[in-house]
Automatic annotation (TrEMBL):
Pfam families: MFS_1
SUPFAM superfamilies, sorted: MFS general substrate transporter (SSF103473)
Subcellular location: Membrane
GO MF, any single term: transmembrane transporter activity
Region of interest called Disordered, as start-end residue ranges on this chain: 1-37
Organism of provenance: Cutaneotrichosporon spelunceum
Name this protein carries in UniProt: Major facilitator superfamily (MFS) profile domain-containing protein
Length: 503
């Protein structure tokens, strides 16, 4: 009889080191090899042969080492990119006077964050593998922290606009890098929840940053500086501190990690290979780059992300004005910003749970978010003024649904592709289109329409979410059709005859 591995965590298996995607099973009572389980299908047990307690403990160890530093980094990212709206809401008249800030100039300042953010997305992924997440992402956070401090010392609106452009360039590294890193660590059935926890926790805490911004603005006059300047300076110092934390705590890719045992790393890599067969990094080449550019599904995911971020950025930049339009005072508008972002955790985590649990509900969860976003937008913008509570409830639906769909779209895109080079490209392109959503928010929610409730921006959000509803349903049934063809051996999906789309 052939001997088996003695480890208590792996049951009756030996792994061929030459091909980590093939796992051979050996029975204890005879020499006959059992067939290895097929991988890549949504219904295959990728955990076969491993002790569930060992998988659970290793996964939790990864969760605690990987996700909290990313949450802290993206939390301060979401605060830093929208603190210009907090500063304006806190000391509007003072800020306008000190920066010679007219109505259109504020829109320019918010808009100029995004062109460098978009252009730097794809190049930002090239250094992630070479230098490692700890140094690449940590350096980016450190640099934009310095820029944020500099924003507090701006002497005119041109200087602030230029530094906002620098902020966009450095922030471009984080989100696609984090999405790519999470996808490299987890099999598909665990991606949506981790992506949701990473993103929505950051946004919820960032929502509380509105209260922090208001509290900091009360330092108006300290050391001769206006309250809006202290918002940038103190939040910039916090950003630098989080960057140092990132240097110390952020983990590398699975094959280069040092906090796991060899047995744990082998288990992580084996599960990923069974799930989709791409645990090993592959270099980006020009042929691959061109082929990825020609894939319609990646562009469709990117367009959805643009639609979703139009909703998130419009709330981030213009919700204070929207709340004041409902009749709330400036102080109450600042206070009431936080609850919708805290609420966003609920729909995001519920949708992510069902997306991962059943795996063929990913499209329906995104669809649910779109419909809630449409309903919420209509409620806060179209209800008569006397229904103040109903209008405010609409902001909960709009903020929760739009932010909840961010993690769902990222995770479904990553579940629908293979190869690590493609993951880096896809996450960068999708997040770049998120920047386009930010540009649209800056252009469509025009200050001159603020007293009318931003009708151009509002109906753009509604119309584009209707487009997303139709295309999500279409892609879902197209994926199902391709899976049926693959089952009959008529097509090969993602270059692997075992790969199937999750719906």
């Amino acid at each position: 009889m052939v001997s088996t591995r003695t480890t208590p965590h792996v049951v009756d298996e030996q792994i061929d080191k030459k091909d980590s995607s093939q796992v051979h099973y050996i029975e204890h009572d005879d020499d006959e090899k059992a067939s290895p389980p097929e991988y890549h299908d949504a219904h295959i047990d990728i955990d076969h042969g491993y002790d569930p307690a060992f998988i659970h403990s290793t996964t939790r160890k990864i969760d605690w080492r990987l996700i909290p530093p990313l949450i802290a980094m993206y939390c301060i990212s979401s605060i830093d990119r929208k603190n210009v709206s907090l500063a304006r809401a806190a000391n509007n008249e003072v800020m306008q006077k000190e920066l010679n800030l007219g109505t259109s100039r504020y829109n320019i300042i918010t808009l100029l964050f995004f062109p460098p953010y978009i252009l730097a997305e794809l190049p930002s992924q090239l250094g992630l593998r070479k230098f490692g997440p700890r140094y690449w992402l940590g350096s980016a956070v450190f640099l934009w922290g310095l820029v944020t401090i500099g924003l507090g010392f701006s002497n005119n609106w041109v200087a602030m606009a230029a530094m906002r452009a620098l902020l966009g360039m450095f922030e471009a590294c984080l989100f696609p890098g984090a999405a790519y890193l999470i996808a490299c660590w987890y099999p598909r059935k665990q991606m949506a929840r981790r992506s949701a926890v990473f993103y929505i926790t950051s946004i919820a805490i960032g929502g509380l940053g509105n209260l922090l911004g208001y509290a900091i603005s009360l330092m108006h006059g300290v050391r001769g500086l206006s309250g809006w300047r202290w918002i940038f300076i103190i939040e910039g110092v916090i950003t630098v501190a989080i960057a140092i934390m990132g240097f110390l705590l952020l983990v590398d890719f699975p094959d280069r990690s040092t906090f796991l045992s060899e047995e744990q790393k082998e288990m992580i890599i084996t599960r990923i290979d069974r799930d989709r067969g791409d645990s090993e990094a592959d270099p980006m080449t020009m042929n691959k780059f061109i082929s990825y550019l020609c894939e319609p599904k990646i562009w469709l995911f990117a367009m959805w992300f643009c639609v979703t971020t139009l909703g998130t950025y419009s709330m981030s930049y213009f919700l204070p004005r929207i709340l004041r339009g409902m009749g709330f005072t400036d102080t109450m508008s600042q206070v009431l910003l936080a609850p919708p972002y805290v609420w966003a955790v609920v729909p995001a985590m519920v949708h992510a749970y069902f997306a991962d649990k059943y795996r063929n509900m990913r499209a329906w969860m995104i669809l649910s978010g779109c419909l809630q976003c449409i309903l919420g937008t209509v409620l806060y913008s179209q209800l008569p003024e006397r229904f103040k509570a109903g209008r405010y409830a609409g902001t909960f639906l709009a903020v929760g649904a739009a932010n909840g769909n961010v993690g769902l779209i990222i995770s479904w895109a990553q579940c629908s592709i293979r190869n690590q080079s493609k993951r880096g490209f896809t996450s960068a392109l999708i997040v770049a289109f998120g920047g386009i959503g930010g540009i649209l928010a800056s252009l469509l929610f025009m200050d001159k329409e603020s007293k009318k409730g931003y009708p151009t921006g509002v109906w753009s959000v509604v119309g584009l979410n209707c487009f997303q509803v139709i295309t999500v349903i279409g892609l879902r049934f197209f994926f199902a059709y391709r899976n049926r063809l693959a089952d009959r051996g008529k097509v090969v999906i993602e270059g692997d005859d075992k790969f199937r789309y999750q719906l």
